[in-house]
Amino acid sequence: MHPLLHDIRLVAFDLDGTLIDSVPDLAAAVDGMLVEQGFEPVGEARVRDWVGNGSRKLVERALASVVGEAPDASLIEASHDHFLRHYHAAPCDQTRVYPGVREALDALEAEGFIVTLITNKPAAFIDPILEALDLRRYFRTTLGGDSLPQQKPHPAPLLHLATQYGVDPAQCLMVGDSRHDVEAGRRAGFRTLAVSYGYNHGEPVVSSRPDGVVESLRELV
Ligand SMILES: O=C(O)COP(=O)(O)O
Ligand SMILES: [Mg+2]
Prior knowledge:
Helix content is 38%, strand content 13%.
């Protein structure tokens, strides 16, 4: 077991960029929305840098890139509905589980950790994606970006789970790919572990100073 797991009872995983490479399907939905609105598609590489603050922010960033200024609220709202429709139609066609993830989850389960998931993705997508990838059974609780009034980097979703399971935050570990996961973890009093391969707005996640960094979740166990 990784030294950061010492004394830990609850592990909270981020989803996009940590457990799954979901950008191909997210980009297809963003591009579907843009084309439908009469804009040019933007492609996967750009969408990768916009993921991390939930679907509304993703749509807002995509629109800002094509209109060249801050998009107005009614355009964001209408475009978000289009995005959700596209993403609902194909949330897991090209999405893949990263190497080492199943091994890590199997080992954590066998060791009796409370394994949970906290994503900024809308909650409605969590189960369809986890079920399609045969990952649902590992998680005792899952929270989406719209499950509570606040989302990461706010510590509320993390503290919600610590309270739910009666675990001291000091015995909880947040595992994620972005500065939002590290910041939420630090503010909640969790230990923080970052994966180096995910999505972090084009910056190395190590600049957020997590307590540890791994290149594969295999290193966790
Ligand atoms: O949907 C997003 O923007 C990011 O989701 P995540 O919190 O699972 O990385
Ligand atoms: Mg992420």
